[in-house]
User: Which sequence fits this backbone?
């Protein structure tokens, strides 16, 4: 989500701030050498720093707690929100240091108790990095090795049904909401999965989207293998094939904007979650059957304290105006200061 570069590979924030600074009557001062961090001086006398696309809206501790999936689910669940059943497990040396019994064997036992499939993920990464679904014990062993090869903590979590939504709240108001759909291709009766992915990459490139489709990703191959397919398989015309079990945009997921259709009960839930974590600005990730219908089943999957707003749901001529309008709201909130 945090898209570093614009279409030409340069950071996109300077251009946005150049356009919206004057609308606010604000002075924007970039650090000149790298042009990534800077200072905004508002007409009301307030001045505030930004770091890339991160503005000073949230406190440091709240933001750090949101970055840790274990801490976030703890504080949400004690405040009555529904979160996926999950538990943290440790790499062997760390487990011994903590004198904990939560090692890889315990992780396997916990997965059995949850029932298959389960999700396995690092505690503090983002953009889908290291997140995978394990259908069975063999896949859990693989996923555990992948996560604990790089991190000392991992989460094993029940797989939750529903669609994947991101609801962005700012001081209690939902400013953007969209569904995220995992990477998928549609067959044409001639092309292999690999060729379809290449074509999709070309489409992304042409639209200015800087996502690299992770063609070599083991998770794609695992998902294909489960269905008896490989990247060389040819899909029948019109057949839709999902290639990943995660919907992150940085892994090729796409968005469907639902800001105007979001059900008020879901908007209210997202706003309550933001308050519960003491975040003025937050991307609340929910899994639920339908965010445009009255709230029933849901889980809060995670919360992002610095949600990028330059997503791809509205790529096209209106895209720039859409993104500018969102950042205008963000900067107005920065100028206003905390309530
Ligand atoms: N427990 C789960 N049930 C269903 N889908 C999940 C679950 N955990 C993760 N996912 C899928 O994987 C994606 C990435 O997982 P997430 O926990 O959000 O990690 P990250 O911080 O890397 O985005 C989610 O957006 C969702 O599509
Ligand atoms: Mg996520």
Assistant:
């Amino acid at each position: 989500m945090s898209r570093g570069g614009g279409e030409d590979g340069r950071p996109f924030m300077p251009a946005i701030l150049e356009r919206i600074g004057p609308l606010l009557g604000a002075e924007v001062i970039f650090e000149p050498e790298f042009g990534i961090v800077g200072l905004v001086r508002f007409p009301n006398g307030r001045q505030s720093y930004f770091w890339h696309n991160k503005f000073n809206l949230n406190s440091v501790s709240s933001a750090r707690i949101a970055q840790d999936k274990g801490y976030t689910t703890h504080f949400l669940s004690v405040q009555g929100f529904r979160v996926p059943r999950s538990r943290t497990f440790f790499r062997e040396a760390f487990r011994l240091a903590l004198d904990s019994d939560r090692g890889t064997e315990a992780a396997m036992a916990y997965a059995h108790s949850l029932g298959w499939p389960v999700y396995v993920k690092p505690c503090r990464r983002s953009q889908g990095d290291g997140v995978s679904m394990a259908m069975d014990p063999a896949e859990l062993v693989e996923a555990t090795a992948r996560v604990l090869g790089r991190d000392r903590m991992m989460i094993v979590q029940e797989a939750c049904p529903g669609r994947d939504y991101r609801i962005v709240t700012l001081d209690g108001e939902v400013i953007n909401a969209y569904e995220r759909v995992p990477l998928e291709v549609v067959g044409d009766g001639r092309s292999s999965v690999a060729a379809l992915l290449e074509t999709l990459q070309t489409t992304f490139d042409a639209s200015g989207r800087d996502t690299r489709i992770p063609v070599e990703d083991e998770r794609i191959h695992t998902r294909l293998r489960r269905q008896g397919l490989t990247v060389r398989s040819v899909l029948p015309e019109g057949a839709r094939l999902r290639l990943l079990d995660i919907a992150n945009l940085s892994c090729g997921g796409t968005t469907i904007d639902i800001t105007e259709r979001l059900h008020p009960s879901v908007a209210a839930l997202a706003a309550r979650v933001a308050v519960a974590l003491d975040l003025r600005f937050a991307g609340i990730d929910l899994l639920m059957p339908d965010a445009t219908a009255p709230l029933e089943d849901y889980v809060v999957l995670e919360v992002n304290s610095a949600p990028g707003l330059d997503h791809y749901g509205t790529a096209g001529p209106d895209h720039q105006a859409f993104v500018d309008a969102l950042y205008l709201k963000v900067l107005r909130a920065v100028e206003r200061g905390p309530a």
